[in-house]
Amino acid sequence: MAKITLDNLAHSYLPNPKGEDDFALKELNHDWADGEAYALLGSSGCGKSTLLNIISGLLHPSQGRILFDGVDVTQASTADRNIAQVFQFPVVYDTMTVRDNLAFPLKNRGASPHYIADRVQQIAKMIGMEAELGNRARGLTADAKQKISLGRGMVREDVNALLFDEPLTVIDPHMKWELRTQLKSLHHEFGHTMIYVTHDQTEALTFADKVVVMYDGRVVQIGTPEELFDKPQHTFVGYFIGSPGMNVIPASVAGSDAVVHGAAVKLGQSFGPLDGKVEIGVRPEFVTLTDGEGVPVKVRRVEDVGRHKIIRADLFGNEINIVAGEGQSISPDMNRVTFDPKRVNVYVNDWLKEGEAAQ
């Protein structure tokens, strides 16, 4: 287990990068605590796998350093970093049995036969493959092979970090839930430092202590699921976390009021003059459709998803989503929305702006 430090880290796949836009991974300076579980979350191409491969030693950064517990490992090989990595697609030895595949990392390091047998049995139970231990891997499904890859990554207890690069892509949905639960249990039991790359917010939010949200090669926020939901530091975080994501609406802001196409929206904070692109962000859960006061909208459709209704509406050319209770009635004359002032965030050039307590 190790504290992982990213020191002035950046990477470009071009031989002579000219500017920031040439970097797939923009400059990062972060400390990731020993023994915590992190999820790297973001859309395809945002730099998640690039960062993971730099941490693992599969890729050498264009600039900066990687430190494990304060020791510079930037030039160290993957083996010398003492990490275990599980990839998106299964990597197994087809001619070996499931048992031998799981035991391989331990045999390679000279563990005792008794310890190997006990540990393999424990991991096989965790991944639901006790009955297949004597079978060769060649005849197994891709789903089963990926479970072997996961098991082989988890079989060692002495690693500095466990790295997972979208490991559940080929796993069926029910087994995904089980394996995420088991990975979380493993983390609580053994306290490994874990880093889990995914584009699936459900995987990230249910697995990690802290979610690292990446956008355009940057880490735009590191936080708990609650922090990402309540206070997105960047509009991308608000959009990417939540279903539906946060509503982002162009506005002007003066004091404790925002103005959207002439309609006033109360804010929970007070702001001075703001320069740049100004927007307000509010989660659909904190928007109320009414037939009284508020900002005018035009309801496009209502989607009943069982636990609640999602109302899709148009607000002066901007799509807005509203979450209403399953039992709430929606009538044709409901054509305005109000926002919970304490839940309205203000963004300048996509970044959260903090104000002062409203008087």
From TrEMBL:
- Name the InterPro entries for this protein: AAA+_ATPase, ABC_transporter-like_ATP-bd, ABC_transpr_FbpC, ABC_transpr_MalK/UgpC-like, Mo/tungstate-bd_C_term_dom, NA-bd_OB-fold, P-loop_NTPase
Q: Where is the ABC transporter domain?
A: 4-241
- Molecular function terms from GO: ABC-type ferric iron transporter activity; ATP binding; ATP hydrolysis activity
Keywords of the record: ATP-binding, Cell membrane, Membrane, Nucleotide-binding, Transport
Tell me yes or no: is Nucleotide-binding among this UniProt entry's keywords.
Answer: yes
Leader sequence range is none
Pfam families reported for this sequence: ABC_tran
Any one Gene Ontology cellular component term annotated for this protein: ATP-binding cassette (ABC) transporter complex, substrate-binding subunit-containing
Protein family (similarity comment): Belongs to the ABC transporter superfamily.
Protein's UniProt name: ABC transporter ATP-binding protein
